[in-house]
Amino acid sequence: MNHCVTCDKSFRFKDLYDKHIITCEFFSKSKREHDREIESFEELPTSQDQYKLIQHLYLQVAKLQKEVERLNDTMLIKKRRLIIDWLNGPSNYIPSHSFVEWTKSIQVDQDHLQYVFANGLTEGMKQCIHSHLDSNVNAPVRAFTQKPGTLYLFVKDQEIDVSSWKMATSEDLDRWMDRLSHRFLQEFIKWQLENADLINSSETEKEKNLEYMQKINGVGKQSEDRRKSEIKKWLYVQLEKNIENLAGNEYV
């Protein structure tokens, strides 16, 4: 037998007992307990009220999202400002040359040219820059983990004769890339003059010369923009440092 301890009733069958026990326990509760349970059940809102509630919640979420974006922008500006302040602070090193002077000192030689012949202008420019970075410990270009994809340049203001660090602009880097690619072209013309007899010795050599010329010049504006973008990303990876490891408590 299945015995109900609430009302002292017994049932032969378990399924009947299970049905009984649910209602019996409910009705055996005190009136106050019933009133509290009834108050806990709110009336379901209408479809229009539900729509208004969803709209209200959406506006709240949108407002919070804008606030988060504003705070993120503020933090980025603060972080950018802190990096510039640290770079221009008294505890940081001062490069011996400005960025423009440094880029003008980059030499393109026959080894770099041969690398272009084998791998293309982009890889040749990377190799040239890399060898120059290795020979210049105090290079006037830096990058930090805290500002992904951003380069900092040590520049000189010619009008007031003052040097300082600043964030690199696309124009700064494009002028450098253009100058460097022009040097490769100059070195290629020099190579052509030195190897004129070889170039004209056979159709095969003439075809090679045309192929090398295409690699030196690149292929159209789209290829040039892609090359510049790739080199900038590559340069950031080469230079990236964690400023917190360098500045310590100065960078908060």
Task: Give an account of the 3D structure.
This protein has 252 residues and is α+β, with helices and mostly antiparallel strands. Among the domains are: 2-40; 95-139 and 168-242, no CATH class. The protein has helices at 14-28, 31-40, 47-87, 99-104, 110-119, 121-134, 170-194, 196-199, 203-217, 220-239, 243-247; strands at 2-3, 10-11, 141-144, 151-157, 162-167, 240-241. It has a four-stranded mixed sheet. Strand 3 (141-144) and strand 4 form a beta hairpin. Helix 7 (170-194) runs antiparallel to helix 9. The longest helix is centred in the first third of the chain and has 41 residues, at 47-87.
Q: Which parts are unreliable, with pLDDT below 50 for 5 consecutive residues or more?
A: none
The chain-level structural class is alpha+beta
Q: DSSP helix count?
A: 11
Kindly report how far apart the N and C termini lie.
74 Å
What is the rounded Rg? 37 Å
- SS elements, strand count: 6
Average pLDDT works out at 83
Question: Strand-and-helix sequence, N→C?
Answer: EEHHHHHHEEEHHHHEH
How are the elements arranged and paired?
Layout: E1 2-3, E2 10-11, H1 14-28, H2 31-40, H3 47-87, H4 99-104, H5 110-119, H6 121-134, E3 141-144, E4 151-157, E5 162-167, H7 170-194, H8 196-199, H9 203-217, H10 220-239, E6 240-241, H11 243-247
Parallel strand pairs: 3-6
Antiparallel strand pairs: 1-2, 3-4, 4-5
Helix pairs in contact: 5-6, 6-10, 7-9
